[in-house]
Amino acid sequence: MSILNSVNTFSKALLGVGLVDAWKQAPHTKAASQKAQRLAQKKHILEAVTIAEKAIAAWSSKPGFWERLICLLLLGNILEQFTKQLKQWRRQVAEVDKLSANAKTLLLQDTGNPLETQVLSGAIAVYRHCTKIIHDDHLSQAINQCQQELQRRQNFQRLVTQAESQVENKFFKTAIATYHEAEQLYPTESVKGAIATCETQVQQEEIYNSALQTAQQASRAGRLHSAIALLALALTNFKRSDGQELLQQLQLIVKGKEQFPQGLTAEKAGDLKEATSLYKAAQSLLPDSTECQIRLGLVAIKTRNWATALSHLESIRGEQAAYLRGFTYVQRGNLQQADREWQSLSHPEIKSQREILKSLSQQQCLRLLQKIEQLVKDRNLASAKAVSAEFRQQFGFDQLVESNLNEHIQPCLEAAIWQSANWGIVADKVEKNWISQPDITTLHNWAVATYYRAKSDVLETRHFTSLHDLIIALSTALANLTHDPALKDVPWLGTQAVDLESISGKLKQRMEEAIDQFKDQDVNKYLQLRDHYRLEMVSLRLMSEQKTKGMKVKNVCVTPSCYNRYFNHWRDNWVDDIEKNQNIFRSLYTPWGLAVAACLEGDTQRAIQLKPTVKTSASAELFAQKFVAYHEGCYQLMQHKWREAMVTFKQASLEIKASMIWQKEIDRLCSTQRQVISEFREHLEFAQLWYDLLGSQPARSYLADYRAEQLREKLIKQQVLLEKALQELRDIKQIDELNPVVLDLIERVEFTQEIEEIDRLLKRQNYEDVVRKAKKSRHDRVRFTVANFFIDILMSAVKKGDLSNYQEVQQVGRWAYEICPDEPAFQEIYRSLRLQF
Amino acid sequence: MIYNPYDVLGVSQAASKAEIVKAKAVAMKRKQYSLDIIAKAEKSLLKQEERIIADYLRPILPIIKRFKHSDLSALAESASTLILLAEFDGLEQAIANAKQEERLEREPLPIP
């Protein structure tokens, strides 16, 4: 017997349960529980019950205390839960059994009547409820069978209903076929009876069908009265809807066909109003109203109602309708459309008609040319332009008309605008030309018009607007001065070159003078004009200095104000001709342009007022924002508002770190700021911020000085231990490696620290350690001080004449020698003690 | 000045100094502009650096070419007229068709 068996037997005897058996059974029970739960989740309840019963049976149904305890230790509460679940599953199985039995009972009540479906539907519902609880193939089969039977009965019912409807409408032969179809499903007595009843009516129906067919043939052949008579007779014996509908239709056609000839008679008699009325009546009655529409079109032509004629003849096929439409178009003056209608007609007379059409077209063409000439003669150029456009629309491109329009009428119109000298109108007109066709010529004209408008508006309320327009227009024109045709081949200059710089300078001067006129009128408006003027001038300067073109539209350079004004007009035509590294120039084209230009011109105070308040994400605007922030910070430093300046600088910290020029300027201003600070704490705070911002040498030195000084104060007041102070000094040294103040303080602290240590050793008379410590010191002063201490003892003994213990004296001298063997001041003593080697 | 000196004096851009001086006298007689404006215009055009500005401040306009006339003699000839072709009216034919249809409508059915 193995040990395990012994343990098992022993535990059975003692505890009532075999420990080894329980230990072996527990994993099986766990697995069975999991498997049963998985099956139950898939509604395989029957299988889950079988597994659960088998697994639970392995354990006692009435366990004792020890068995419960062991079971609890091995399985936790799994067995308890498993037992509960088994009970639940058993309840579900019982419920399904009960429902299934109910369904079967219900099905027993079914009599097999094909018109009855309620029992089958009820049974299917019960079975479906069962399948929601449990998965069982028998249930699925039962549902399937019930559904098949139900479908069959529903088909039968549908066919019977259909046949009944056919009987009601007197389509007995069709009804018999449908009943036979139903009979295939359920050969019931009622179906057979219905077939028999229908068969009695078949003869009558066949007579009717024959009459109906003959009537249809007669109506197609035009024998309408005979068709009506035949149909009426057939319907007296056998009334059916299709015959009645045909009869009604034929009667309407006969009526319509009576109206139409009456219309023809009226038309022939010249009573066109009556004819129209009769044709319209016939049109409403006849299924094919083409003839009525043509006659209505003809009557409209005869009464010269061209639009009405076209509305009647529209989309009618055939030569007659096409000819009439063409004729109507001729009368309306649309000869091209008329020719299009007639070009496919085969009638022999059409050729001569088209010749007349051609002649009429030539006449019409000449009349329009005559009209244009007369309008030009009368100097009614706007109308001449409109008639020229009308000519092009009717007769297509004509060289003479086009050249007259482009080389005479249009230039005369443009010149007339300028001759008016109404600069408001001229400027608005040429600005429209500039917007619709941006090129150097339209730009030049816009600049000239705005120049004279600004001059003439001096006393007008819109003077500010016209000056603003002038700044934009003239600056953009100056940006393109080298290409301006107005300055090419100036006749009175001969071969002398045009001095573009001088022209540019003079025009700028005139703009400035015009702006200055505003100074005494309205300071705010004056400043606004100056802001825009400054932006444009800065742009022109950068364009000139950096040989850059800026933003362009169709090869025309555009200044920032002009760009912002027409951004939406030329949304798809902008060309970015700014180098990627020209951040400042690009920023002028952003909403920050005014502020950036002010900074560039040294007016930071105004830039602060001009900077936009909205947040931005575009890269050019972000740069502009930081550019202005740098200048604002410098401005604040100049005002000695260093706290505000440091906050402002933080906005542009990355850009500042990237620019040596900016760093130098900030260092310069910070050095000046340092001079005006008197408080020690303020120095420290400012030095720290300066160092954090730049980390430049002046900032490092400044911060290290003041932090070292702060520590020195603490040391004097003994507010800090030497060890801690030394650690702090090493940190400060990281800021400025070679700072003399810091290095000196470190030296002093280390000296004091070593001397204190040596003093402690001396007090303990630990002379050997004193000597070792002093020898190791890297400070000469420490070594000298200790050696000197020993020499003093020695000299004191000599002075007192206490040399009784020469060896001790010599030992003291030896210690001094060990520490400072080369100290000149001690050499004589060393020699006297014979310590030199 | 709200007028271009060239326009005030009525001279072309090719005008010589003598022509400008002469034009001043003509302009004064014409009295279209005040004496002050005429004097300023003359002064501008006689100073080279001012005159080039006047050149610049002129609009660039297209050259006006002579209007070309067309031969309109054909208009004097009598114009053709277009009359509705009777064949396309078809009223008589329509009446004849209608009568025939009416006769047909009343025809009895052929005895089978």
Mean pLDDT of chain B: 90
What is the first-to-last residue Cα distance of chain A?
A: 94 Å
Percentage beta strand of chain A: under 5%
Amount of helix of chain B: 40-55%
Report the radius of gyration of chain A as a whole number of Å: 58 Å
What is the chain-wise order of helices and strands of chain B? HHHHHH
Largest sheet of chain A: 3 strands, antiparallel
Describe the protein in words:
With 837 residues, chain A is an all-alpha fold. Chain A has 41 helices and three strands. In chain A, 76% of the residues lie in helices and 1% in strands. Chain A has a three-stranded antiparallel sheet with strand order 2-1-3. In chain A, helix 35 (697-716) runs antiparallel to helix 36 (722-735). The longest helix of chain A has 32 residues, at 137-168. The model of chain A has no long low-confidence stretch (mean pLDDT 91). Chain B is mostly helical. Chain B has a domain at 5-56. Chain B is built from six helices and no strands. In chain B, helix 2 (17-30) runs antiparallel to helix 3 (35-46) and helix 3 packs across helix 4 (48-56). Chain B is rod-shaped and about 120 Å long. Chain B starts with a helix and ends in a 6-residue tail after the last helix. The model of chain B has no long low-confidence stretch (mean pLDDT 90). The chains are: A mainly alpha (837), B mainly alpha (112). At the A-B interface, helix 11, helix 12, helix 14, helix 16 and helix 18 of A face helix 4, helix 5 and helix 6 of B.
Descriptive tags:
heterodimer, A: mainly alpha, 3-stranded antiparallel β-sheet, flat, B: about 110 residues, mainly alpha, 6 helices, about 55% helix, about 0% strand, rod-shaped
